[in-house]
Amino acid sequence: MLALHAVNSLEDARPRAHIALMSHIDDCFNTLRLLIAAGDPTGMTAAKEAIERYWAATPLRARKSGLLYVQQILHDRRDKLGPQSRDFADTLDAYFERKLGGPLE
Asked: What predicted TM-score, i.e. pTM, was given to this entire model?
């Protein structure tokens, strides 16, 4: 009985912040996915805004790892893209590199 109580206490004590962080990553990724599929260069402003919303909503220590996660997914899918979408993804990738190379703030 005591062991079960200890397990339940640990479950209750686990921080739930990771759930909120995942929704920011998911929102960012879903926006980027749609914009890449469209391949419209005018969508870059919306892409940057999605990244900036993620950046602002994420704790400092998790920002770069989250962007690296999204960037890796985009890299993995790049070969399946058409020419316009690939060009957009390449432009977006350059933005990721600048963002990842800069300060966390």
From this structure: 0.75
